[in-house]
Amino acid sequence: MVEDSKAAVAVDDACSRENLLLHAQELVPVALAKAKEVKVFPGRWKMIISKLEQIPSCLSDLSSHPCFSKNALCKEQLQAVSKTLKETTELAELCVMEKYEGKLRMQSDLDALTGKLDLNLKDCGLLIKTGVLGEATLPLTVLGSMAESDIATHNNIRELLARLQIGHLEAKHKALDRLYDVMKEDEKNVLAVLGRRNVAALVQLLTATSPRIREKTVTVICSLVESGSCEKWLVSEGVLPPLIRLVESGSAVSKEKAIVSLQRLSMSAETTRAIVGHGGVRPLIELCESGDSVSQAAAACTLTNVSAVSEVRQALAEEGIVRVMINLLSCGILLGSKEYAAECLQNLTSSNEHLRKCVISEGGVRSLLTYLDGPLPQESAVGALRNLVGSVSEETLVSLGLLPCLVHVLKSGSLGAQQAAASVICRVCSSMEMKKMVGEAGCIPLLIKMLEAKTNTARETAAQAISSLMVLSQNRREVKKDDKSVPNLVQLLDPSSQNTAKKYAVSCLGSLSPCKKCKKLMISYGAIGYLKKLTEMDIPGAKKLLERLERGKLRSLFSRK
């Protein structure tokens, strides 16, 4: 019974479409004949007549489409065409009798009629030529073994997406509202049927005159971007310029969704260059200065992504990014904004001496040190500091409080931050006086502990820093005092290729080898076996240290006898 009922409905629906088609076809000659009688506004009516003459072939193409009898879009299109044709006949009769309210009013009505005819022809062409009907009504053979409920869901979503491409703006607005609701409830199925043409239609709606439509559209696009889908399609269909315009002058919601979209899209270097090319830097910087917490953080993150591309850094500097990021480091609303600012400064100063000087002159070193005084120092800020210390005098660094900051980072920072701090020590310790101050500040025990770090690069950097500091005798004494120094350094003699700290471990142990106690410890922890392999590998200092330890071992044997 249910199947019979469905079949009956389908037959009635098909009859309804055929009747609508016949009705529209009958209206065309009536409208054409009446239009040709009109003597007033000849230019406008000539254009209207030329469009009316295109409708029969459009209707014929539409009716011969395989999906004509299966899709509600065809029925609605026929209704829209019939309505326009009736309006054409009515306006033509008024013009023939010259019984209209005013010349300007009629001119406006005729222009609106021309627009409706254009829309009807465009929508018919879209339905026929672009495959919208086929997308909105996929046959069961294509849908395969999906459940009937899933088939219905997919077809409904396809039809909804198709509606974004046809009809007047208000109809698209309704379709957008429905899509927005569906996205919230069933994003997975929307993504499953979304096609490039649908994405292009959404991008076009970003420039609609209605702020509400733009807001809904950018919300849907933001969901698509955050899902990790369609990013290439969105960019290739031109989503960046309208997103940037929304960041500049959209509503609060539009701005937030647009900047979050740009944040995600800017993870691609190619897209980042396009953002700069479309003038996106200035509005992003302005959001960092005056946006709410979410927008500010998203703008800072986007600019950080942009700053990772070396060739655009000068363009960023010309827009004043250095001052803005330093200010954000001090006054950012969210901690995340400050972290992005630090990372951006790290990127900007990684390879450009001019930008380093800009950051220094704007007070960047002081701001970074103040930021690092927080409870969990992050790698990016220490990395920025590492990039800058070579361009600042030792006296200035000490006066700004660099040494207590390094101790704090080595104690409380993430492993990446600790590694960057050890790297800073390597860079600043060019003079004996600086080595002395670093040792007196309490860095050595923390660096020795860092030799136990899980990552090879962290162990290597710590060993390098210790090696540099041990040039000074009082620092060597400090290393000797630490019970973990020799065991940790011997472990770093491991000859495997993954261990890049071995040359620094050899150097440190060589400095400790004049001490009998240290030599005995080295031998007891297996240093001789490691050093034999390192000598074969020609690691600098390994042969000399091996000889010294072997001599000490022989003396120890003779003394026992």
Automatic annotation (TrEMBL):
**Known InterPro entries for this protein?**
ARM-like (IPR011989), ARM-type_fold (IPR016024), Armadillo (IPR000225), DUF7032 (IPR054296)
One matching Pfam family: Arm
Superkingdom in the source lineage: Eukaryota
- Protein name (record): Protein CELLULOSE SYNTHASE INTERACTIVE 1
- Gene that produces this protein: LOC106778984
| Keywords on record | Repeat
The record's ARM repeats, renumbered to this chain, cover 238-280
Q: Which organism is it from?
A: Vigna radiata var. radiata (Mung bean)
**PROSITE patterns xrefs:** ARM_REPEAT (PS50176)
UniProt xrefs under Gene3D superfamilies: Leucine-rich Repeat Variant
Q: Residue ranges of the DUF7032 domain? A: 23-132
